Amino acid sequence: MRILITAGGTSEKIDDVRSITNHSSGRLGVAIANAFTSNFATIDYVTTKNAQKPEGENITLHFISDTKDLAETLTHLLTTNRYDAVIHSMAVSDFTPATSLSEAQLQTAFNHLITQSDAKTLSLDELQNWLSELKKQEISDKKISSDTDHLFLVLKKNPKIIHLIKKLQPSTLLVGFKLLVDVSFSELFDVAMKSIKQNSADFILANDLIEVGTTKHHGYLIAKDGSYKEATTKNEIADLIKTTIITATKF
Fold first, then answer.
1. CATH 3.40.50.10300 in the chain, residue ranges
2. What kind of fold does domain 2-94+160-249 have according to CATH?
3. End-to-end alpha carbon distance in the chain
4. How many Å apart are CA 62 and CA 47, to the nearest integer?
């Protein structure tokens, strides 16, 4: 059995010393990898240098930094190897910095926009075109100057990485993850089912941040037919995912 696991969280560069990231530790990914090592699975483990990492002779680590890096690494792995299952637990940033502006730069850009518009108010199309022009100014490779009281960041949307997986390898069994904050089970379930349909996933591990901690981790492994099973710790979730994959792939 060959498994691909992603874990940890991406970090989106603002400049050479600053970035936008998240709080994902990678602990759940480590628990999942450890669960599969007892079944003699070969594991490609994609993570970040700051996340916790599993150890084992059958585990190959692949380090990434941002979403673009992740997409390139997964594309290489999924076009080079055949995987029985892909477990995509990494917390991937929805947005990445496109450019940054000081107060003076933003004022100049606004003044230029105003002089180009005959109307007293801006239309949504005009605003979007202006933002598109701003995004052409690339993020600095050096440290952004602190000689401004306010720094303005323009963020652009990242592509959905989970959507890439079944596109590159339709036959693999895909387990995705969905994390929401302080919602009802009904909403969590509906969002998970929507993700399954949009990304051709076989299962989604749905969880709520208020039910995730150092010792507890309440999650629901939801199948594409709407059935689900619960687990209350990271190790229980890892064992549930392992058992489900082994059963589904008939290993």
1. 2-94+160-249
2. Rossmann fold (3.40.50)
3. 7
4. 6
